[in-house]
UniProtKB/TrEMBL annotation:
Swiss-Prot/TrEMBL keywords: Antioxidant, Cytoplasm, Redox-active center
Protein location: Cytoplasm
This protein's name: Peroxiredoxin-like 2A
Keyword Ion transport listed: no
GO annotation, cellular component aspect: cytoplasm
PANTHER family registered for this protein in UniProt: PEROXIREDOXIN-LIKE 2A, PTHR28630
GO molecular function: antioxidant activity
Family statement: Belongs to the peroxiredoxin-like PRXL2 family. PRXL2A subfamily.
Record's keyword annotation contains Cytoplasm: yes
Amino acid sequence: MCHHFYGPLQRKMGGLGFIRQGVWQNFMRAWKAGYQGNMLGEGFVLGGVFVIGAGNQGILLEHREKEFGNKVENEDVLEAVNRIVPVQ
């Protein structure tokens, strides 16, 4: 089963994105950490992380991948989640 959330525009980076220095640094970091990917799915779509608060709080965190492997900091996600105020 595959789930998609691209918003109004699907953000992609073309094949030339693979020659960017930052992409190779991210690849080496993941490889050294033992991450093993696969060849499934759409490899050129840039990802992102959103933390959306309850009620009228809106977006508490927005991280859009600028290049392949540009990850969000876990501490930033936890901080945003902790700012969510339950609706009464």
